[in-house]
Write a structure and sequence with these properties.
By secondary structure, the chain is of the alpha/beta class. The protein is 42% helix and 17% strand. It has 11 helices and 15 strands. The protein has helices at residues 31-39, 46-63, 69-84, 91-106, 111-141, 167-176, 193-205, 217-222, 247-256, 287-290, 329-338, and strands at residues 4-6, 11-14, 25-28, 149-152, 182-186, 209-212, 228-231, 235-237, 240-244, 261-264, 291-292, 295-296, 309-313, 319-322, 325-328. The protein has a 7-stranded mixed sheet. A 3-stranded antiparallel sheet has the order 1-2-3, covered by helices on one side. Helix 1 packs antiparallel against helix 2 (46-63) and helix 5 crosses helix 6. It binds 5-S-methyl-1-O-phosphono-5-thio-D-ribulose. The site of 5-S-methyl-1-O-phosphono-5-thio-D-ribulose has 18 residues, from helix 2 and strand 9.
């Protein structure tokens, strides 16, 4: 299932806030609409956010009334500023915006050439994402054995990317190779990406999935029901992995129970000039915690924390699966030394 598409100046995507109860495709016609859709998590997941921002810039280019290159670039920069403010943690957002800006700045020719260059770069990025995810799947599948049960957190599937996913790419690829894989999906409070999106996606593909609440992860591990953990990432820094809140808990539990813990992510999620303390953890609205959907579950006025991500120190990560291959923790550390 392709999550996002460009159709002649319109960005078409599935609204992830209403899944799985409704499969509603929405049309975004301006970069402002794209920015709102990212903020409201109609589109979410690091790689998808990146491609969505690129398409947002493509919409700005498509509708631009600028008459000079300088004005065109100024308009794009304004659009980039708005998009950069949507969500702070996933590095793919900034990576994608910078890539489009560089393309625009370095393209020779007239205004029409610039417009074309921006739109086609966004298209290329969308197609590359799918190719990258297939590679992640192929490399990662080698880590899974026939009969494995894999626990995953949040949704790092097709819905979090243009198609095929990252953590779920590994599971899909192993499944396509004929390995009988089962998945345990954490519900992932507070936005329930595991319950709503991972369960939905895997059921659509016919891959066996069992849903648990986040607090059950330790229980299923202690019972010997989990062979491996695979999660996605929003930003991989030199000393850790930022991903959906609750990932750190799962990683610590996995180590305690001797269960391999893998992170699957494209290299566009690597941010190797930064450390954990440089990562901005998005703090979202308290209503996401005090309510389930639109139903209040906590007393009026209660103090709430709602960090959307946490950081798992590298010592808990056994390997990082990217499109170039599987990097053991030691190989990843060597890579960070080279990028100093
Ligand atoms: O807040 P979300 O739903 O955008 O968070 C998503 C995650 O944490 C994913 O695990 C991550 O972006 C990787 S998606 C391939």
């Amino acid at each position: 299932m392709r999550t996002i598409e460009w159709r002649d100046g319109v960005v078409v995507t599935i609204d992830q806030t209403v899944l799985p109860l409704k499969e509603e495709w929405i049309e975004l016609r301006s970069y402002e609409e794209v920015a709102s859709a990212i903020k409201e998590m109609k589109m979410r997941g690091a790689p998808l956010i990146g491609v969505a921002a690129a398409y947002g810039m493509a919409l700005a280019a498509y509708h631009s009334k600028a008459e000079t290159k300088e004005d065109f670039l100024r308009e794009l920069e304004r659009c980039a500023e708005i998009l950069r403010k949507t969500r702070p943690t996933a590095v793919n957002l900034f990576w994608a915006i910078d890539r489009i800006m560089n393309k625009a700045r370095n393209t020779q020719g007239n205004l029409e050439d610039l417009r074309e260059a921006v739109i086609s770069e966004a298209q290329i990025m969308a197609d590359e994402d799918v190719e990258t995810n297939r590679r992640i799947g192929k490399h990662g599948a080698k880590l899974l054995s026939d009969g494995d049960t894999v626990l995953t957190h949040c949704n790092a599937g097709s819905l979090a990317t243009v198609d095929y996913g990252t953590a779920l790419a590994v599971i899909r690829a192993a499944w396509e190779e004929g390995k009988r894989i089962r998945v345990i999906a954490d519900e992932t409070r507070p936005k329930l990406q595991g319950a709503r999106l991972t369960a939905y996606e895997l059921m659509r593909d016919g891959i066996p999935v069992t849903l648990i609440t986040d607090g059950m992860a330790g229980y299923v591990m202690a019972k010997g029901l989990v062979d491996k953990v695979i999660v996605g990432a929003d930003r991989i820094v030199r000393d850790g992995v930022a991903n959906k809140i609750g990932t750190y808990t799962v990683a610590v539990l996995a180590k305690e129970h001797g269960i391999p813990f893998y992170v699957a992510a494209p290299t566009s999620t690597f941010d190797l000039s930064k450390n954990s303390e440089d990562v901005i953890i998005e703090e979202r609205s308290p209503e996401e915690v005090t309510h389930v959907g639109s139903v209040r579950i906590a007393p009026e006025g209660v103090e709430v924390m709602n960090p959307a991500f946490d950081i798992t120190p590298l010592k808990y990560v056994d390997a990082i699966i990217c499109e170039k291959g599987v990097l053991s923790r030691e190989e990843f550390l060597r890579l960070t030394e080279k990028t100093t």
